[in-house]
């Protein structure tokens, strides 16, 4: 049974008598949305758990087996019975799991993808831990932030956009109840006037002391349909935050094979001699590092496409381009392993802020990539330094004799790799992942077309301009008009905020950048707009002053300052404090005053008229009609 795209489960007529809001069907079954979670455990292991989200709460399923291909947000029916609630939340003893309908289908993706809009909420109960400014820097503004990281490793396909909220004080849960933390953190956001539904992904950071066995926990989705939640138990380093967001996109852990020392020239049998290390990849955050994700993960995410992924079926010399650079050539070079898997070779040249090792070739092994991220391993004890990197002259031979490769040369942007297969292979040309054939560069296989540097972080602020009303313009009392702005950025405008006086009034995350004003009373008013990009670079418009009333006989109808290019900083809208610690922060300097929780931070520039502050007058008389922000 398949849901029409975008339809809610209520559209189904499948014979079940449950309300499709995700509740108890009867005393012996629940229905709701399926969610798999993966925990990064403090003891070095990992744990998979299965959950059903209903309006009655989130139930952890005690179940023997769940289909591997069951997608995040699938609508399921689970016969069984409720168990006494544990400190970690509600539990359901499941007899079986029945698929009612697949998840709603996402809108067709653009290239690059639409920005990932992420909300990060900091909560505490006794003593504050992570502060807003540090969390914002880690997520968006620092040179090694998650925003910059995902932009570089995806070659510009991924953009992280969002805000950090809190720290908010909430009641301490009784045990490691992550779903209760979500409930209380979201309630704190809403109490401050913020809307969690603006964000497609949510990150929840909380202190230690709850007995959680994990540093990070995440629901598992897919690249085009990411899971929503991830949790951080007193941890927010580059490895854990980049990994948990990766789980939201369906990536599993990047493992390693730990192999005993063998005499020079002998190779390991990867099943018999080597042990599995769950977080073994030393350079990949899906393992235990903060460098680029390996090329298996990048292929699964769709960041490597077409002839970026090439499979060798015959002997040849291949150009293997650096994984740090946006390239048209081969960045994942594959040939068969003895056990039905594939070797994925990648070249790291050490460019950029995230990979700073000496250049070399890494060997990964994984199955063909399908709809879910495949288990993948790096052979991390190869090479002269026993750190996984193979240098010029080094070779690797499959233990079952399915092939050998040799590093012939390392260059700034590429490595030359000799592939030798039994009997010379099948004699057919190599194939790209889309079925095409790679280009030749001289006698070598693979294009050398590549960018000179890694995809850079966004250092250019948006440009924003108030287009109506004009500075110095006069209006009759009671007039209606629309404040309009134009905003542009070399990459992406994340949001535009209207400021009245020195305080933010309303934020839009989608164009048109417009605000309707109605029945405006007499007075002089000053306002402007501020635009942010995904890295929270700030563009500030000119300040505009308007007059509402009847011009005097000697007035020209325009302010003497009309046409001035004074920035908001000289007209009462100057950048200043970042706002209270217990509220959102853009991570950069905001116009003075921060964000008001009551949504009405309006003030009259000339307080002498009428004897009332502009905020009180606007509260009753001027309606800036707000659109609900879309997720």
Structure description:
The protein is built from six helices and 35 strands. By secondary structure, the chain is mainly beta. It folds into four domains: 9-101, OB fold (Dihydrolipoamide Acetyltransferase, E2P), CATH 2.40.50; 116-248, no CATH class; 254-445, no CATH class; 463-621, Immunoglobulin-like, CATH 2.60.40.10. An eight-stranded mixed β-sheet has the order 14-13-20-19-18-17-15-24, covered by helices on one side. Strands 28, 30, 31, 33, 34 and 35 form a six-stranded mixed β-sheet that branches. It has a five-stranded mixed β-barrel with strand order 2-3-4-6-5. The radius of gyration is 28 Å and the shape is globular.
Keywords:
631 residues, mainly beta, OB fold (Dihydrolipoamide Acetyltransferase, E2P), 4 domains, eight-stranded mixed sheet, six-stranded mixed sheet, 9% helix, disordered N terminus, disordered C terminus
Blueprint (SSEs and pairs):
Elements: E1 24-26, E2 29-41, E3 46-54, E4 57-62, E5 75-86, E6 89-94, E7 98-101, E8 116-124, H1 132-141, H2 146-153, E9 160-169, H3 178-191, E10 201-206, E11 214-220, E12 229-233, H4 238-248, E13 254-258, E14 275-277, H5 295-301, E15 309-311, E16 316-321, E17 332-336, E18 342-348, E19 360-366, E20 376-379, E21 395-397, E22 404-410, E23 414-420, E24 431-432, E25 440-441, E26 444-445, E27 463-468, E28 474-475, E29 479-488, E30 493-500, E31 503-508, E32 513-520, E33 523-533, E34 538-540, E35 544-548, H6 614-621
Parallel strand pairs: 4-6, 8-9, 8-10, 10-12, 13-20, 15-17, 28-35
Antiparallel strand pairs: 1-2, 2-3, 2-5, 2-11, 3-4, 5-6, 5-7, 11-12, 13-14, 15-24, 16-23, 17-18, 18-19, 19-20, 21-22, 22-23, 25-26, 27-29, 29-32, 30-31, 30-33, 33-34, 33-35
